[in-house]
Amino acid sequence: MPLIDLANPSRFLALSGRVLPWLSGATLVAFAFGIVQVIGAPDDYQQGATAKIMYIHVPSAWLSMFIWGTMSIAALGTLVWRHPLADVAAKAAAPIGAALTLQCLVTGSLWGRPMWGTYWVWDGRLTSVLVLFLMYLGVLALWRTIEEPARAARAVAVLTLVGAINLPIIKFSVDWWSTLHQPSSVLRLGGPAMHSSILVPLLVMGLAFFLLFITLHLAAMRNEIMRRRVRTLMLMQADAAAGR
Amino acid sequence: MDLGPHAAFIVGAYAVAILIVAALISWVLIDNRRQRQILSDLEAKGIMRRSERSPERQS
To answer: Which residues of A touch B (CB under 8 A)?
Structure first.
């Protein structure tokens, strides 16, 4: 089936309905496997068991940026191609991105307190991730502010594309500025700087969180399509009541 | 499993992650039930899209 066929919301609902149970199962299996790996992973030679926070902190950090990237592609779909599902995809992704960015910030703070001696420091990495979280909240607020979905989608798309400038700032903040945050140790030019006994559980947890995002995103997109149908029917009901 | 002297921070971080994931799953499930309920209520009142009406009703 050509990818463009998925642009039809009814077809998307039918296909996603078939895929979702399998995705949910795969997510559960990935988390079960990941948690077993995390329990068996060795402590860090400097940080001890505190390094176990990494297995939930790093995947949420990756996803916080990935989801904004997904929303940016959807924003292009809204502004350039007016793809029927683009703004549905963007709107459904935003709450998940906001929640996982919050998870990244809170778990990072809880990791920072015993390691750095402070919950928070206003350096490049932490501040740019906080800005990302605030932008997610801004997008959520903008969706609620404008009632007409198509108009809201265009305004949100512009804000999303402007906010995408923050993604390379987050990624390279640890190289550009002096910071307490450690530099990249997985996604870097010279390859991962971790032993496989730590890297493998991290990648499995990363996969589990990625599958969780895909599952929740598809489910939230289905809800958003239904919400728009409800809106259309309520408008029809109001028209009928007004005798139009 | 010995979590060392900073066990409270590790357990706290995992508890926050579990809470956030549980909240996301609940949001999706509750929203789905709510939208389905509203749609079925509207359809019960005979309000449905033209593409979903039977041919007899459309004519």
So the answer is: 39, 43, 48-50, 52-53, 56-57, 60, 95-96, 99-100, 102-103, 106-107, 110-111, 113-114, 212, 216, 219-220, 222-223, 226-227, 229-230, 232-234, 236-237, 240
Q: Residue A213's domain spans which residues?
A: 23-42+53-183+193-238
Whole-angstrom Cα distance, residue A160 to residue A164?
A: 6
Which residues of chain A make contact with B46, given a CB cutoff of 8 A?
Answer: none
A226 → closest Cβ in B5, B20, B35: B35
Kindly report whether the global pTM for this prediction surpasses the value 0.80. Answer: yes
Reported ipTM: the value is 0.89
- Tally of domains in chain A: 1
Q: Select the residue of B14, B21, B28 nearest A223 (Cβ to Cβ).
A: B28
Backbone angles phi, psi at B53, to 5 degrees: -80, 150
pLDDT digits (tens, 9 = 90+) for A4-54: 666 788 888 999 999 999 999 999 999 999 999 999 998 888 888 899 999
Above 60 in pLDDT, residue B56?
no
